[in-house]
Amino acid sequence: ATGNNQEQIVRDYLYFEICELQGENWRQIAKDPEVHCSWAVRRKDGLKLGFDSNTRTFFLYDLVEDFAETKNILSKVDGSTLTDLFRMRVEAHISLPSLGYVGQILDWSE
Question: Mean pLDDT across the stretch 53-66?
């Protein structure tokens, strides 16, 4: 996805982010989205790194070996793998304020 009428950037991984109760909690989210938004990045090789804002924890799953996401392998991978995954997250993330969102509830019905 893109913002500000930019062309979509094609990447070799999937990134998604969700800020729960965004309409109600936008002030807290705007102040510290790193704490109030959950996110995940998934590489083609099946590694999925993410952050759960409800539990405030990071996780890493190998979806090829563990599709049900039952074994958090975060402590078992090398630093370069984590660096690569976090680089992808930073590269793909677009902050809400940079998209023009300042707490308003948008009408998508049109």
Answer: 91
**What's the average model confidence in pLDDT over 76-101?**
76
Q: Is the pLDDT of residue 103 over 60?
A: no
Asked if 83 and 41 count as a contact pair (C-beta separation under 8 A), the reply is no
Phi, psi of 90 (to 5 degrees): -65, -40
Band (35; pLDDT cuts 50, 70, 90): low
Cα-based distances in Å from 40 to 32, 81, 90, 108, 109: 17, 15, 11, 25, 28
CA distance 25 to 19: 9
Helix (H, G, I), strand (E, B) or coil at 15: strand
